[in-house]
Amino acid sequence: MNFEFSDEQIAMKDEVRKLLDKENSLKRNRTILEGEEKFDKELWDSLVAMGLTAVTIPEEFGGIGMGYLELCVIAEELGRAIAPVPYSSSVYLATTAILNCANDEIKKEFLPKLASGEIIGTFAHAESSGFPLEKSINCNFSSGKISGTKAAVPDADIADFAIVSAKNSAGVGLYLIDLNDESVEISSLDTFDPSRSHGNIDIKDASARELISDGWLEIEKILDQSAVLFSFEQIGGAEAAMNMAKDYAQGRYAFGRSIASFQAIKHKIADMYISLQLARSNCYFGAWALSNEASELPTAAATARVSATKAFYECSKENIQTHGGMGATWEFDCHLFYRRSRLLASNIGSQGVWKEKLISSIEKSNLQI
Amino acid sequence: MDFNDTPEEAKFRKESSEWLKENFEKFDNEKSSSDKSAKSSAEPSKTSQDESKALELAKKWQTIKYDAGWACLHWPKDYGGRDATPIERVIWSQEESKYSIPGGFFEIGQGMAGPVMMMYATEEQKKEHLPPMAKGEKIWCQLFSEPGAGSDLAGIKTKAELDGDTWTINGQKVWTSGAHYSDWGILVTRSDFDAPKHKGLTYFFLDMKSPGIEIRPIKQINGGANFNEVYFTDVKIPDSQRLGDVGDGWRVALTTLMNERLAVGDASGVDFKEIFELAKENDFYGEPAVKNSAVREKLADWYCEYSGLKNTKMRRISALSKGETPGPEASITKIVSANKLQDIANFGMDILDQAGINSEGNLKYHGSLLGAPLIRIAGGTDEILRNIIAEQVLGMPQDVRLDKNVPFNEIPTGEKSN
Question: Could you give the angle at which helices A263-291 and A297-323 cross, rounded to 10 degrees?
Answer without folding.
Answer: 160
